[in-house]
Automatic annotation (TrEMBL):
PANTHER family reported in the protein's UniProt record: UPF0644 PROTEIN PB2B4.06
Protein's name according to its UniProt entry: Thioesterase domain-containing protein
InterPro entries: HotDog_dom_sf, PTE-AB_protein, Thioestr_dom
Pfam families per record: 4HBT
Length: 271
């Protein structure tokens, strides 16, 4: 290894040295060794190979650039407007995936203890427009698909939800507040079924975020009623959110109550 000073001296010596050595006998520049030119020409690439290499590099990096640009454009582009033709096409594709390529759907449908239903069936189209999850978050950009499997015997439910890009907080990551909203509704679906009037409100909600929840994927929301602590006015529920591979993303617990002085509309079985 050469130090900085040695390297500098070496560079200075090379720069000051003559291009060809001087012959001691003739005091004239001696000819270069025969192998010098031979090696140089042998290693020198031809013009054709240089152009072929440049063409290959241009093709490869040009293609990668176009692909990256397309992916970025798709990611930053505004999601389809709810109700538009593009939105309907995406919604139909998601429904096909749900029906044919989601293993948990087949598993739950084969279990007679689970009842499958859509969400917000108790409400009219006009009423749904005024609900956060059925109005502003509707369409393929939001909560594109929500299906609920309810087990009356165990008083628990498993909801399958597709989270669109419109639910993001950070790029590709679903907003924690949006997640809390969906979790709150899913826990409430189990709690409110236990009340005589089929209605109530959230009194307490606790969440522990364990792993990122990415947009553009199906997730399962699990909710279970605590049968030992239920009363006519109070219901404790626990739940969790799991990714497509079953990994735990969020842990949740909540308390739902029936107000004494506030008259609430009955939400029914399938809200």
């Amino acid at each position: 290894m050469f130090g900085p000073r040695a390297a500098l001296r070496s560079q200075t010596h090379l720069l000051s040295a003559p291009t060809r050595p001087i012959s001691r006998l003739t005091n004239s520049p001696s000819p270069l060794p025969r192998y010098t030119s031979t090696v140089a020409y042998a290693n020198a690439p031809s013009k054709r190979s240089i152009w072929l290499r440049r063409l290959a590099y241009t093709t490869i990096f040009g293609g990668l650039g176009m692909l990256a640009g397309q992916l970025i454009e798709e990611k930053v582009a505004a999601p389809p407007v709810p109700g538009s033709l593009e939105d309907k096409i995406v919604m139909e594709e998601l429904l096909q995936i749900y029906e044919k390529a989601t293993p948990i759907v087949m598993e739950l449908r084969s279990n007679p203890n689970y009842e499958e239903s859509d969400v917000y069936q108790n409400y009219s189209e006009e009423e749904n427009r005024h609900r956060l999850t059925a109005g502003p978050l509707r369409g393929s950009r939001g909560l594109a698909l929500q299906k609920v499997f309810y087990n009356r015997k165990e008083q628990e439910s498993i909801s399958i939800v597709f989270l669109g890009e419109g639910t993001e907080g950070w790029p590709t990551i679903t907003h924690g507040g949006a997640l809390a909203t969906v979790i709150d509704e899913n826990l409430g679906r189990v709690a409110l079924r236990s009340f005589p009037g089929k209605t109530g409100v959230t009194a307490n909600l606790q969440l522990n975020y364990r792993a990122p929840v990415y947009s553009g994927h199906f997730y399962t929301f699990h909710s279970r009623l605590d049968k030992e602590r239920i009363t006519e006015r109070k219901a404790y529920v626990t739940g969790e959110v799991r990714d497509p591979l079953g990994g735990l993303c969020v842990e949740a617990s909540a308390l739902f109550v029936v107000p004494k002085k506030l008259k609430l509309k009955e939400l029914g079985e399938t809200y």
